[in-house]
């Protein structure tokens, strides 16, 4: 049986530990036949070590999504490993302390703008940087936490996710005529480094599994990785500008 992503060349950002959603996406992608190239932010030696835990060790390119020079060189760096891209995964989020579980109204613009740049605008920066390598039928996927409602503690990260949702729709509009799809996967809470840095997020983690009709395990990022790989595959060929929910069905309930 051939894999879902057989022969696909996929660039995956956002691996920092082996609980990262990006790590599990890379693992499932390789198991399904993809050739994976990773990008890492800052702690390259650590990311390389984690990359070594994948079924096939993946090369790691340095990328800070706020660094214009690194963005400008990204396509050339990727082209050293693969001759084009069929998919790009944006699995990046960051907000300064003042933006999470603190006094929402007191967060200074400097911090908020930092959160917006890294967590939302960067979907545009990354997609633009990869565009020379993206052909007809390729798929860009970003990671979302349902921003249609307000959550405890998520604060300005929620605002950044709302901006990410809108950015994905505008990118879908721009890139549809080139045959490039742009979608988000909206996941339930997963215990990763980013999630642990949100004070009060545990409140959500504790109740999610009880409320979600299909149940939910915050220690298991694999269902999210599988969903991202499905969106990267050829099996959602007319889906773009969409938010694909992978949350055990939590979003469907009012109470
Ligand atoms: N964990 C959850 O509960 C959850 C739920 C829904 C969506 N998400 C989203 O999934 C994505 C991945 O997060 P995760 O939970 O796997 O946590 P994680 O901590 O494993 O990953 C976050 C990644 O963002 C990267 N990053 C931060 N600043 C960067 C920069 N300037 N340039 C490039 N990379 C940068 C980090 O290096 C890290 O690899 C994020 O967008 C997050 O908001 C997470």
Describe the protein.
- There is one protein chain.
- The chain is of the alpha/beta class and 255 residues long.
- The protein has helices at 21-31, 44-51, 68-79, 109-130, 155-175, 193-196, 201-211, 222-232; strands at 9-12, 35-40, 60-62, 85-90, 134-144, 181-187, 243-246.
- The protein has one domain: 3-Layer(aba) Sandwich (Rossmann fold), CATH 3.40.50.
- The protein is globular.
- 45% of the residues are buried.
- The mean pLDDT is 97.
- The chain binds nicotinamide-adenine-dinucleotide.
Radius of gyration: 17 Å
Structural class: alpha/beta
How many domain modules?
Answer: 1
CATH superfamily, by name, is NAD(P)-binding Rossmann-like Domain
Distance from first to last alpha carbon: 42 Å
The CATH architecture comes to: 3-Layer(aba) Sandwich
CATH class categorisation = Alpha Beta
Major sheet characteristics: 7 strands, parallel
- The residue fraction in helices comes out at 25-40%
Tell me the series of helices and strands, N- to C-terminal.
EHEHEHEHEHEHHHE
Pathway: Lipid metabolism
Pfam families: adh_short_C2 (PF13561)
Family: Belongs to the short-chain dehydrogenases/reductases (SDR) family. FabI subfamily.
Keywords: Fatty acid biosynthesis, Fatty acid metabolism, Lipid biosynthesis, Lipid metabolism, NAD, Oxidoreductase
What would a concise description of this structure say?
This protein has 8 helices and 7 strands. The chain has 255 residues and is α/β, with parallel strands linked by helices.
